[in-house]
Specification:
This protein is an alpha+beta fold. It is 43% helix and 20% strand. The protein has 8 helices and 8 strands; from the N terminus they run βαββαααβββββαααα. It has a 5-stranded mixed beta barrel with strand order 4-5-6-8-7. The radius of gyration is 29 Å and the shape is elongated.
């Protein structure tokens, strides 16, 4: 049975920048483009972190536990991306964003407490982790099932062990994988009445409910990322509108035409047909061919 530590990659949600958070915006300020970009990157990293395959369930609690090298590499990439933040550098702000996004999933406060550690200035990571090694069993067969839900299993190499709470694990088979935490040894009664000391393990597979909760959180993170994409697009449109408005002088009828289109289409500003047509007529009087064509086509309708 392969042994792997549960702390691999546990820092994925930690703040990568320490010290004074001077670059982070204060609450109440309009978000800058850079802040929105970094918030989007952050919630996208949450969407990866809260995937069920990166978590285990042990004694009623959930723990973040990457299980293979590809997951560890991806987590390292996310951590490196966060180390380059220049706006979202405040750890408390990151924690608040994570908490708000998880809350939007609708899973409730009890699950939120299981999935997100309370904010602490001294603790760098946000997700709960378990400082215990677990064993990976690739392919096994069940030799005997007990009334309590425990089971005697045999791995592909012929080693036997007693697994408690196997009911939460995948169905037994040569292609199944078990993740187990060793609890010590336990006496097992054989069919002839004799007792045998066996290594005892607890299965740390997620239940159906736990898997569903994590999937709800992932979906909430994805929705939040999409909303931030839309916010970023709106921010760029507003910035372009202000530039266009500043350049829309009588000596620049083309910019007056573009400003008219902004009002008519609601691009970067609330849609206002009356103001848009005023600017379109102004642009046409000042020689904009695009504005004249637009007014001619509108008059033919």
């Amino acid at each position: 049975m392969k042994v792997r530590p549960l702390l691999v990659g546990c820092m994925v949600l930690s703040c990568a920048v320490f010290g004074q958070p001077a670059a982070t915006q204060r609450p109440g300020q309009a978000p800058t483009e850079r802040m929105v970009i970094e918030e989007k990157q952050f919630v996208e990293s949450l969407a990866y972190v809260y995937r069920p395959e990166l978590w285990i369930s042990y004694r009623g609690a959930l723990y973040f536990a990457p299980k293979d090298d590809s997951q560890v590499r991806r987590i390292a990439e996310l951590k490196d991306a966060r180390s380059k933040y220049v706006a979202l550098t405040n750890r408390e702000t990151q924690h608040e964003l994570a908490a708000a996004t998880i809350a939007e999933s609708g899973v409730g406060d009890a699950w939120l407490k299981k999935l997100l550690l309370p904010y602490s200035e001294t603790r760098p990571n946000l997700t709960p982790t378990l400082n215990r090694a677990y064993r990976i069993v690739n392919g096994f067969k069940v030799l005997r099932v007990m009334k309590e839900g425990d089971a005697l299993i045999q791995d592909a190499g012929g080693a036997t062990g007693l697994v408690m709470n196997l009911g939460a694990a995948p169905a037994a088979g040569t292609n199944s994988t078990l993740y187990l935490i060793k609890e010590g040894e336990r006496a097992f009664a054989r069919s002839n009445g004799e007792y045998q000391q066996l290594e005892a393990f607890t299965s740390v597979a997620l239940s159906a409910e736990e898997t569903n909760v994590l999937n709800l959180v992932v979906a909430a993170c994805q929705r939040k990322a999409s909303a931030l994409v839309a916010e970023l697009a709106g921010s760029k449109a507003r910035e372009e509108f202000e530039i266009t408005k500043a350049r829309a002088t009588d000596s620049n009828p083309y910019m007056q035409y573009l400003l008219a289109r902004c009002y008519l289409d609601g691009n970067g500003t609330p849609k206002d047909e009356r103001v848009g047509l005023e600017w379109m007529n102004t642009a046409a009087r000042n020689g904009s061919g695009d504005a004249k064509t637009y007014l001619e086509q509108k008059g033919k309708k």
